[in-house]
User: Fold this.
Amino acid sequence: MRLRILSVQDLGSGLIFMSFGAIAVVLAPSYHIGTALRMGPGYFPLILGGLMVLVGAALILRSFRVTDPPPALPRLRPFAAVIAAAAIFALIVDSAGVVVTSIVTLTITYSGVRGGNRRELLLLCIGMTAAVCVVFIYILGMPLYIWPPLWN
Assistant:
């Protein structure tokens, strides 16, 4: 009997999960494992690595049972928008402040969306900028400017 791979995506995902899980399981014992009540630094990587190996095995088994639809061509516009927004964020966050940086990066990221409208973008910018300011500046206390500094 010959096995036939029906889902290359599941097979690849399963192999990746199993690889990372196996690495974690192999490296975790080099740290103190501990017990469930007194966990050491190697406990969580060992458990998580074991779970990743199990998920990988399940995906590999599934790859022989589920048929993939034909693969679609990758859309590069959303990918490029996210990469550009991350690069712009890293370049301007210190000099432009959180509000300006959030608006710029959200606008760049939103340019990767097809069929988006300006009202939706405006609401997204208002909500996300407010959330970023509250979480990162006020709750976490990160030393970031809210607005662009007038002088250095």
Summary: The chain has two domains: 8-62, 76-139. Residues 58 and 128 are 37 Å apart (CA to CA). The helical segments are 8-27, 43-62, 76-110, 118-139. The chain is about 65% helix and 0% strand.
